[in-house]
Amino acid sequence: MEEPLPAPPADARDAVQRNASLTPAERLTIVTERERAARRGTKGPLDERMANLADALRRARLENAERSSALSDLRAGEIARLEMLGDALTPVLAQVPRDCDIFDVGVAPTERPRLFIDQIGFVEMDRDRRTYRFLQDTRHGRVTLRESDSVDEIVDAITGYIAHRLIEREKALAVDYASGGAAQALGVKISAPRAKDTSFTGKVSRAAAFIAEFFGAAAFFGLLAVLAAWAYRVYFEG
Description:
Blueprint: H1 10-21, H2 24-41, H3 45-88, H4 90-93, E1 106-108, E2 114-116, E3 121-125, E4 132-138, E5 141-148, H5 151-178, H6 182-185, H7 200-237
Antiparallel strand pairs: 1-2, 2-3, 3-4, 4-5
């Protein structure tokens, strides 16, 4: 004898009875709403791609922040090493003549920090962040004067550079003094202002020149008047 099937629960019987009393259109609407609710509850491929992109953006921001921090630390290290080199140059710069203003030693905290000695010579760090490179800008391009990881060697090189620049300055001043000025050194003739003659002869000559200029101007304008009268009689009266 077969066992009877268990009776459905009361909620299921009520749902069946309600579905039996609904029209086909109402049952179709209920099924559609259930499918939409099911789709909202599960993530599709598009949602997964959006979630992966958001995670990738967060990771990229973190990596960029860490890289910026590392670059900032490296730049701060370069500035500290260049400042240490500048402190080592203090005794040398103290011996430079006071009237010499071609040396302005200081660290420029730019994207590539540099210790400027003057307008054309400077020191920067190499790619390893430990080696000093002493460079100079010339008319033929940038040249390397000394490259070393020793502060003393770079100080010696800069000291020799300052000595040569001082000698060049002395030569320029000597040429300027011997030639009577920079303009004469370049071959430019300087015309001295003429002294005003205050003697009696000078006064007479200036008065005669003024009278001659006056009568010359009067004669010129008189000639113009005569020509204008002749042109009027010939062309207008006739």
